[in-house]
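Notebook entry, cofactor series.
This is the third protein in the set we're modelling with a bound small molecule. For this one the ligand is adenosine-5'-triphosphate. I'm keeping the input format identical across the series so the outputs can be compared line by line later. Sequence and SMILES below, as received.
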Amino acid sequence: MATSKNISPQQLAALTALGLSVPITLGIFFFKPVWWIALASLVVIFVGAYGLILYTLQTFIYRKMKLIYKFIYQTKASRKEEYYLKNILPQKSIDQVREDVETWAEQRKEEIEMLQQNEAFRKEFLQNLSHELKTPIFAIQGYVDTLLGGAMEKPEVNKKFLQSTSRNIDRLVNLVDDLDAISKLESGGQLLLMDNFVIQDLLKEVYETLSFKSDEKGIKCIVKKGCEFPLTVYADKEKIRQVFINLVDNAIKYGKQFGTIEASFYKVDGSSILVEISDDGSGIAEEHLARIFERFYRTDLARSRQVGGSGLGLSICKHIIEAHGQTIHVRSKIDVGSTFGFTLFSKKD
Ligand SMILES: Nc1ncnc2c1ncn2[C@@H]1O[C@H](COP(=O)(O)OP(=O)(O)OP(=O)(O)O)[C@@H](O)[C@H]1O
Ligand SMILES: [Mg+2]
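Returned structure with ligand:
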């Protein structure tokens, strides 16, 4: 049953025609009480009024509404939309049309909000990028100027300045490499070279690669007891190596002196392997946890301690794991430590 709010144009025309024809017929019957004349008047007036009212509604209201719909769809109406405009729209009540327009407005609002958010991201990205570039470039400029200004002739400082220049150039190169990796991952232009390999072996290689750093801090890098049984995963080995390098590098950087980094591996359901890297370092405060996978995001603690880095490492990890169709997560508690975990497909036969 149509409610008074949800009435179609046909129903509206019929009701109005009825409202007109019944009193007029009653009037005619009053002056000429012949039943067939009354009945004929009722039919003629009802049909005439119905046709006229419907025509007026369609011409003056629904044609205009059709224009609004065409405007809403913007592009040239597709065949489906043409069908809709021709056959379905004229059946709709004003209330249904209002709902359609509200839905449309809601969608546009969401689109605009997303564009504004992207714009804010873009601005923040440029700000961060120029900041990250400025620091090493100004340092290099300073060292070179000092060398040219006479320090080159002083053997006690010239080598030190050149070494500092070289360190800052390395930082720039790392930054550009990271940005390159992110943009390639974001554009989705890179294919994954999927292969079966034993995940523990890859981690041990990464422990080995980074041992110069962990040894410096006296940090022990181990595989958790009970997790040594070799598990074979199906993934892009070099990209997962990058994930391990970034996570272990963070665990060393933000880990405590003489601490321990522990990796664990679990088979979850039939098709996935869960990998976790835990440290007993500074930990990450609750309010930062949701944001640390964003590009350039660093906690205040990491910034103030000046432990290198530009905040791209975790963003790269997230991109790589998501490109594999898997997820990465973090659990952490201040002064207790952090655990970064991600899943991978287990061996493909
Ligand atoms: N294991 C960890 N313990 C404590 N804080 C961490 C840990 N891993 C990451 N963080 C925090 O998350 C931030 C982002 O990490 P990410 O690896 O993206 O950047 P980064 O290490 O600062 O720089 P980059 O990896 O680009 O050299 C870090 O700056 C640090 O504040
Ligand atoms: Mg890092």
